[in-house]
Each structure stands twice: as C-alpha cells, then as structure tokens.
Amino acid sequence: MSSNHYSENQLRKYSLKLDKIPKLNYNDPKVDEYISSNEPVVIQGCDLVASANSWDLDYLKRKMMGKYTVILSQNHKFKYHDEKKIQSCKTDFKPTTRRVQMKFSEFVDKIKNWKKNDERLYLQQVLDNSVGISIVQDFVKFNWNWITEKQIKNNWGSLTSNLLLVSMEGNVTPCHYDEQQNFYAQVKGYKRIILFRPSQFKCLYPHPVYHPYDRQSQVDFEKPDYNRFPNFKDACGFETVLEPGEVLYIPMYWFHHVESLLRGGYTISINFWYKAGPTGQIVYPLKDYQKVAIMRNVEKMLNDALRDSTEVGTLLKTIVDGRYF
Ligand SMILES: CCC[C@@H](CC(=O)O)C(=O)C(=O)O
Ligand SMILES: [Zn+2]
Fold first, then answer.
1. ipTM for the assembly
2. Residue 269, ligand 1, Cβ within 6 A
3. Ligand 1 test: best mutation among 81, 176, 258, most atoms within 8 Å of CB?
4. Which residue in 94, 154, 162, 216 is deepest, having the highest Cβ count within 10 Å?
C-alpha cells in the first residue's frame, strides 16, 4: 500500500492478511450504512477538526502553557496498562511505559533532540480547559454539527472525552480494543491503522480482564509466539493509512493497532470517544461485540466469586472439558 505521500518501507512489516478499509466522501450515504452496522470506514472531507489544521509543535507550544500527560516508553511500543489493576494482579507486573506530567516546551525539546536508546515520548492529553483558551477556541470550532448528527442518528451515548495525541514518528500503540465508539481524526502526519473485528478475539488473545493489560492483545505482532497463540496465524484484518483531514470510524470492541509512519515526522491526532448507546431490544443472533461483552462479564463474575484469578481457568475448563464439545 503506498501513495505519493508515503512509501511501503515506512510501514512496519507483519505477517497478517489485511484488506483495505474503504475511504468515502462524507456525503456518501454509504458512510451511514457502515457506521450504523458497526463497520469501520474512513471519511473524507467532513472537516471535523479543520480548525486544528494550523496545529503544529510551535503553535501548540505557544498556546499550551500548562503541564500535560506524556507517556514514556523504553521501546517504540506504548502498550496501555491500567494502574488500578496492578496491586490486585498476582503476577509481578512490570510496565514498559510510565506516565509523567511535562510542559509542552519540554516535550518539544525532548522529541527534537531525541537520540537512539532515549526513552520515546507520546503526548496523550485530554482536551479540557487545562489546554488554554486558544486551543479551546479551536476546539469549539470543530464540526460538532456533523459529528453530533452521527451520535444521535446512531443512538450513541455521551461524548466521554477527546484525546490530543502527539506522537513521535515510529511510535506504536499495540493491538487492543476499547469499549467505546471512536471517531479518530488525523490532523498532521500519517498513521497506519490495522483493525480486526471483535470475532477475531480467538486469534488475538487479549489479556485476562483482571490483568493490568486488560483489553490489550498478548500477541507481539513483530515476533508472534505461535506456540502460545496458534490462532494468530489465522488472524485477518483491515488496514488504512490515515491522511491529514481524514476521519476513521473505529467501532467499539474492534481491535486496533496504530503506528505513526517510520521516518514520517511527528503526528497529531484527535480522538472522539462516545459511550455505547442503551442496548434496547436484544436481537438474536447476537453481534460479535456483544459476545465479547458477555465473556468479559463471565470473567469478572468468576474473579469476584473465586477471589483468585488462578482458579478461573481451571473452573472454566472443568465446565467445558468433555461436556460442551
Ligand atoms: C490512547 C489512545 C491511543 C489511540 C491510538 C493512537 O493514536 O496511538 C487509540 O487507541 C484510540 O484512539 O482508541
Ligand atoms: Zn484505542
């Protein structure tokens, strides 16, 4: 996959079967069909964050005078972990990233002077009043009419947050799913996004729900352990390289892996996370994401009831072995 904006060798190599995600103009009626059926689509021309088109490191450095959340990583992977689950996790969990509060000017200096073996940086800041009046003024000029119409038409819940994502070239957010609908807007630079439908759960082996890496795939895409994760060789997904001005709809519970292109310079993205809407009438057969939600509830219930995560697997095998297949 290449275009006159980037080349194939800027994409990391994985052994995966990947189809293309369609790119449609925002007023193509098929866009609403994809969104209403929880299928990913890249939307062009909607100008969702056009008021952020002028955002670059210098502009943000001048306008953002506070301290902001920056993730530091010992390598190019920024695998998210839930701090709250660390103490209850029996195994001695060693995170590969740490979260600090940093002035924007310091963040810019560090990425401009970054050398091999330095910790990599990824600014991931909730867009709230802490970002300052200028950024808020750009924020209020987002195309809220367009996105709110999508939110209402699809009966989504409330907008929970917008994250400002400023990434160094080459950074990777490894494969995971979120329990929220996501409109993912690309502002600057190019990001390659790989998506898998929720039914690929059995190929992607997310960590157990009680684990700090809950929702994150256990599989290292760069060095898959096919002995532990044999179904990964059957994984098949979708990919796109998101360009500035484009918006990717990432349906809730869809697994996604996101990387800023190698040698592509820093990237800026803004996400829009929406709560799922009320379930309403349950329709059978259930959707694949509903089955993931059910599996999560079973894991949570068993962990609460047994009070010992090491017993959950044994009990589930006892239920299944010789009885359910
Ligand atoms: C912390 C959120 C990171 C983002 C991926 C990326 O831009 O690296 C993502 O996973 C999402 O928007 O859901
Ligand atoms: Zn995500």
1. 0.99
2. yes
3. 258
4. 216
